Amino acid sequence: MSTLSLRLPDSLHETARTLAKEEHVSVNQLISTAVAEKISALMTETYLVRRAAKGSRKEFKDIMSRVPDVPADSHDVR
User: Fold this and answer.
1) Which residues of 9-21 are buried (b: 16+ CB within 10 A; e: fewer)?
2) What gap in Å lies between CA 12 and CA 18, rounded to an integer?
């Protein structure tokens, strides 16, 4: 594990303290979790962009054209 010196505006630090107390975790744990969540979101976005680049609109339309045109089952409709 490594140590990171972080400068936060006072208002953000106070909010982090308050939230950490409400969640019964340390400010360190709250910030670590927040960074992990942000990294996960950014990595997911990158992954989806890469997957989308491999897609083919023509192949999608071809596959969808093979799906029967029937009404939805009653349990599929709200």
Assistant:
1) eeeeeeebeeebe
2) 10
pLDDT of residue 25 exceeding 90, the answer is yes
Q: Which residues, 6+ apart, have CB-to-CB distance to 13 below 8 Å?
A: 27
Retrieve residue 67's tokens. 């799906």
Question: Domain limits of the chain?
Answer: 31-66
pTM (two decimals): 0.63
User: Does position 23 have pLDDT exceeding 80, yes or no?
Assistant: yes
DSSP 3-state assignment of 2? coil
Per-residue pLDDT at 73: 87
pLDDT score at 42:
93
Work out the burial of residue 31: count CB atoms within 10 Å of its CB; fewer than 13 is exposed, 13-18 middle, 19 or more buried.
middle
For residue 65, with 0-12 CB atoms within 10 Å meaning exposed, 13-18 middle and 19 or more buried, which class applies? exposed
